[in-house]
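Weekly structure sync, notes
Attendees: PL (lead), two postdocs, one rotation student
Agenda item 3: pending single-chain targets
PL asked that the sequence for the first pending target be pasted directly into the notes so everyone works from the same version. It is reproduced below exactly as submitted, 109 residues in total.
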Amino acid sequence: MASKNTSNSKFYSAFSLVAALGAAALAKKGLNTTWRAATGKNPPANPADPDVGLAEAVMWAALSGTLIGVARMLAARRAATYYAKSTGHLPPQLQKDDQDASKAPAPTA
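Predicted structure, written out during the meeting:
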């Protein structure tokens, strides 16, 4: 039988994944609509296609990658906040990650 901590961790993983996928889908839909409004044409289906202009391919890759990445991160943070409020602690995957700069190793010359 799985412990409560393990089942909570699995729940968080599934919840976080669903939230991130949903956020990415919404971000992509919004980006597609915005791209059409701004350029008057559909976004490139495959920016790697040589028939797509380089500037257009780079702009699409940069915008879509950034927006979808940020949407996924925000959804994952929201899922973590919900988990923490529900259980009283962060999910095991997000326990303190040693980002304290004062504890970082000194740079070597």
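Discussion points:
- The mean pLDDT is 85.
- Residues 4-39 form the longest helix (36 residues).
Action: rotation student to compare against the earlier draft before next sync.
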